[in-house]
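Example 3.2
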Amino acid sequence: MVKNEQQKCAAENRNQLHNLSGGAAVSEDRKVTKKNHKMGHARLIDSFRYAFEGIAFAFANEQNFRIHAVATILAVAAGFILKISTDEWVVIVILIGIVLMAELFNTAIEATIDLQTKELHPLAKKAKDTASAAVLVSAVVAAVGGLIIFVPRIINLIWK
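Structure, written as C-alpha cells:
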C-alpha cells in the first residue's frame, strides 16, 4: 500500500513538473528536457522571458517580494533626493540585488519542496526555514547599510 502511494505521489509530481516546465518532456529521473532545443537569439530571448516570468510570479504571489520591491523604490528615491555618491549607489544597488535574489531563491526553494512533498516533513521545514532565514539576514544587512548611508544625510538636512 505504501509503495502504491509513493508511486502515485511520484507520478503526480512528474505531472506537475511537466505542467510547470511548459510542456517539456519529463524523464523518470525528473530531468526536464526541451522538446525543441533552440539555439542562438531565440534561446536567449526565451531565457530572458522565463526570467521575467519568474520575477512576475514572485511579485504576484510573494508578499515579502512586494515589500522588498517597495523598499527598493524608497531606497532609490532616497538616493536621488539625498544625492548619494557613486560609491554609495554601488553599495545600495548591490544590497538591493542581494535581497531580491535571496527572495527569489527562497521562492524557488519553497516551490521545489512543495512539488516534492505535500506532507509536513522535518527536512522540508528545515530547508524552508533556512531559505527564509537567508532572506532575513540579507534584509537586515541591507537595512543597516541603508541606515549607514542615509541617516547622516538626513541628519545634515534636518540640522542645516
